[in-house]
Amino acid sequence: MNYIFEITDKVRDYECDLQGIVNNANYQHYFEHARHEFLLAHGVSFAQLHDEGCDAVVARIEIAYKFSLRPGDEYVSKLCVKKESIKYVFHQAIYRKSDMKLCAKGKIETVAVINGKLGTHPTLDKLIELI
Fold it and tell me: The whole model's pTM is what?
């Protein structure tokens, strides 16, 4: 995969379950945080989009869990994005930083809801064209 953006973060103790591994739901948070940081890095804010009547929402998510992160692990979250019809499709992966072992990969399909209707947004489209 040709990833175009990445961030590094660290697992917090409260994100883990009784087994001592990151709870599966937290990987969705990690993926979402990376998408938001990607937008911010390109000058696009969720709040600004909302004020313009555009809400980017997840329509579908697929996650394959490969290896469990543990408390204190640093990880690298990577992504690339493509436009498919009216969907903005993010391909994302999370790697444990110490050895770059793949921990989770996901395909996240998002859509823009503009003033209550599915559509496209020029800011998001322009961002995709730049990539």
Answer: 0.94
CA separation for the pair 21, 2 (Å, rounded): 28
Question: Domain range holding 14?
Answer: 5-130
Catalytic residue annotation? 17
Total domains in the chain come to 1
CATH no. for residue 38? 3.10.129.10
Contact 79, 34 (CB under 8 A): yes
What is the full per-residue pLDDT of the chain (131 aa) written as tens digits? 899 999 999 999 999 999 999 999 999 999 999 999 999 999 999 888 999 899 999 999 999 999 999 999 999 999 999 999 999 999 999 999 999 999 999 999 999 999 999 998 888 988 888 77
**Three-state DSSP string of the chain:** CCCCEEEEEECCHHHECCCCCECHHHHHHHHHHHHHHHHHHCCCCHHHHHHCCEEEEEEEEEEEECCCCCCCCEEEEEEEEEEECCEEEEEEEEEECCCCEEEEEEEEEEEEEECCEEECCHHHHHHHHHC
